[in-house]
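User: Hey, quick favor. My workstation is busy. Could you predict this chain's structure for me?
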Amino acid sequence: MAVRELRYLGDPVLTTQADPVTHFDHRLSALIDDLMDTVLLPGRAGLAAPQIGVGLRVFSYNVGGLHGYVVNPQIVDLSEETQDGPEGCLSVPELWFPTRRAAQATVKGVDAKNKPISVTGKKELARCLQHETDHLDGKLYLDRLEPDQRKEAMRQARESQWFWRGEK
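Assistant: No problem, here it is.
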């Protein structure tokens, strides 16, 4: 379909909880196609609908040769084992901060025809599943940082050229 323009930190759509998908029609299929096309650009691991301005619970992923999407995802399992590593976000470009996540995650949801699907991932895919589900809950990875790191991240973001200041 189309590669969609991204929304950036400061845009209220990124901090608003996304609504569950209730209509499984051609509009949902078009949104999924756009998410799938947009996440395929180089350097992208995942993309949630709010990141393209759509407040619905849908995300796409593209990690380690696995490319797919989940509608109405819910995290149903997180390992007790954790992973620490740098995390970034398309909506907070150029900023990477160490973020703790579960080393393995399972998300359950449905596909475009409302049929159940489940995705389980380790390492980078686990991080992606958690990160994108956070987006649908109106959270950014910056919200998970330690207070001093979050303060520094917000300072860097506000000084950036991409920071959304309400103009459109």
